[in-house]
């Protein structure tokens, strides 16, 4: 029965991932997420329903439009598969519960934010601000006795990023990251510590690699949203475990 639920979670994640591809492409371009329907960005031909099956259609078409034969980015497959795998991991961690539904919403938002920020260096207010409200409301509803923890985590994380943006303007921190910190803090509570630690750690490693190995300029701009998203996923799935382990080292 458990494997059946995992399969359902994976298929549901693939479906959500397919929609996230639409969000990632259209939202930064201020296009409707509903109309027109899915179409080839090259020739504009409408995508047939049987060519819109997550992962399967991309593989069957060998990554090309059925009509104009222009290549379809492997990104579509990656987003769908990534969302499906993360949905399964969330179910494995949280089982079937209201917490799982909240986690899926959080994961879907993080995937969209990460790819949009990577492509356009923006973190859309239309995702993080409603997401912050939903996150705080859901967290308080599920854990009413810890309402203050989520408030402190959200506003504390946002204040930290705001201070970096104000006093270290060349550090790559923008106000989109400030609002994203508020968003993830309201969802994660104390696990936001893990999210921030991993985001800065991995971001620093990638930055050093690009400077020393890829010989990028020191003035390069590196989107921080994907690193925050990565840290947040780990914080969601293993944040409490990691914090407990860390505290045990000093007890």
Kindly list the characteristics that best describe this protein:
mainly alpha; globular; 251 residues
Q: What does this entry show, briefly?
A:
This protein is mainly α. Helices cover 68% and strands 0% of the residues.
Sheet bearing the most strands, described? none
Approximate helicity band: 55-70%
Classify the secondary structure makeup into a structural class: mainly alpha
* Total separate domains: 2
Using the alpha-carbon principal axes, give the shape. Answer: globular
If helices are DSSP runs of H or I spanning 4 or more residues, what is the number of helices? 9
Unreliable stretches (pLDDT < 50, length at least 5) are none
Cα separation of the termini:
40 Å
Average pLDDT, to the nearest integer?
91
Secondary-structure element series: HHHHHHHHH
Q: If you had to describe this structure to a student in words, what would you say it looks like?
A:
The model has no long low-confidence stretch (mean pLDDT 91). Helices cover 68% and strands 0% of the residues. It has helices at residues 2-26, 56-60, 75-94, 98-120, 125-142, 147-167, 175-188, 192-212, 225-248. It has 251 residues and is mainly alpha-helical. The chain folds into two domains: 1-96, no CATH class; 123-251, no CATH class.
Give the helix/strand layout:
Layout: H1 2-26, H2 56-60, H3 75-94, H4 98-120, H5 125-142, H6 147-167, H7 175-188, H8 192-212, H9 225-248
Helix pairs in contact: 1-3, 1-4, 3-4, 3-9, 4-5, 4-9, 5-7, 6-7, 7-9, 8-9
């Amino acid at each position: 029965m458990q494997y059946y639920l995992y399969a359902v979670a994976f298929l549901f994640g693939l479906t959500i991932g397919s929609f996230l591809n639409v969000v990632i492409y259209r939202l930064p371009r201020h296009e409707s997420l509903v109309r027109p329907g899915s179409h080839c960005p090259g020739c504009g031909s409408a995508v047939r329903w049987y060519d819109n099956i997550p992962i399967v259609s991309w593989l069957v078409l060998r990554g090309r439009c059925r009509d104009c034969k222009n290549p379809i980015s492997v990104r579509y497959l990656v987003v769908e598969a990534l969302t499906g795998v993360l949905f399964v991991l969330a179910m494995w961690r949280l089982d079937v519960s209201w917490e799982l539904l909240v986690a899926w919403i959080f994961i879907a938002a993080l995937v969209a934010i990460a790819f949009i920020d990577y492509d356009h260096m923006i973190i859309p207010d239309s995702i993080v601000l409603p997401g912050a409200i939903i996150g705080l409301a859901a967290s308080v509803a599920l854990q009413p006795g810890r309402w203050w923890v989520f408030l402190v985590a959200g506003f504390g994380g946002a204040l930290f990023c705001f201070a970096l943006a104000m006093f270290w303007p060349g550090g790559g921190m923008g106000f989109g990251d400030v609002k994203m910190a508020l968003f993830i803090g309201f969802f994660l509570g104390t696990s936001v510590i893990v999210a921030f630690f991993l985001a800065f750690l991995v971001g620093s490693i990638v930055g050093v690699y690009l400077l020393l190995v890829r010989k990028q300029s020191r003035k390069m701009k590196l989107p921080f949203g994907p690193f925050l998203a990565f840290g947040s996923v780990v914080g969601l799935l293993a944040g409490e475990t990691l914090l407990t382990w860390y505290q045990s080292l000093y007890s």
